[in-house]
Amino acid sequence: MNKMNFLLATNAKLGPILPFVLSSIYDNQPAASVYLYYSALAEEDLKKISSVAKTFNGELNLIHFDIKQILDQQGLKDIPAWFGSYDAYTRIFAIQDLYEKGIDKCIYVDCDVMILKPLDELFSIYSRTDAIAGVLDVMPDTNKFKTPYYLNSGVMIFALDYCRKIKFPDKCVAFLKDYADQSGFMDQDAINNAIKDTVPICLDPKFNNLLRDFEHVENAVIMHYAGPKPWDFWRKWDHSKFVYYKLKLYYYLKSKGCNISKETLTRLFKVLEFVLHPLVLLLNWVHDVNFKRRMRRKARRNAKK
């Protein structure tokens, strides 16, 4: 099994889902070394995360990282937060930190991803010394700064010495100083602008699947739950959400010593998804009605201002 280094950046809000994210990494890439940078994590979540590593006999490196202090030191004291958090910027500086620790390459993954299948196909790209790789972003209106390539930063491969040579962290910082207040996707915009003079490797979308329909989810190697989160139980249901809860149950049972196979759970959840389909349609209809109602109320309030 090929060894791969994984970089994640998180905070206390995402702590409860991390055991399942890490389980999906170790399960599909047993030779993984995980470098988890965090600004804050509850003691209970730290124990659960460490327990997952022991269950899978995986290598785990927990690195406390005061990202706000780092941003202040870089002259980015007033940079906007991303949904109330600064941790999205951590990857920019963690790349330099990993290089200084003697790490030569890594796969960065957001904490709202699940690894669904082994990553053997990625290893030839991961092994390159000049690789910055990712999946082209499929979401509308993301490439505001019109870079030649615009990668979704939720899953990326970095050759760290190459990042040093192209002055990746410095370019990200320079962009954020000039354009953070104009950017819609701060860290992602910074990363894409830092590599705009290179030719990144564009991965197959199955390695960072952002789409929720049945075909794309079944084909996905890495599922990225950007947007509505599957752990928000009352949000809209689709096939990707059933996949999430299937894996969550599988890894929970595995942590309790139950050796039910993933294939057995897959068959059970297919039946469950079929049986619950009418209820799912009703729940999604209620969600859509409530959403439209909230939008109309919001529009009326804005019109009165």
TrEMBL record:
| The species this protein was found in | Candidatus Avisuccinivibrio stercorigallinarum
Q: Pfam families, per this entry?
A: Glyco_transf_8
GO MF terms held by the record: glycosyltransferase activity
List the transmembrane segments. 268-287
Q: Which UniProt keywords apply?
A: Membrane, Transmembrane, Transmembrane helix
Q: What is this protein called?
A: Glycosyltransferase family 8 protein
- Keyword check for Transmembrane helix, yes or no: yes
Q: Which SUPFAM superfamilies match?
A: Nucleotide-diphospho-sugar transferases
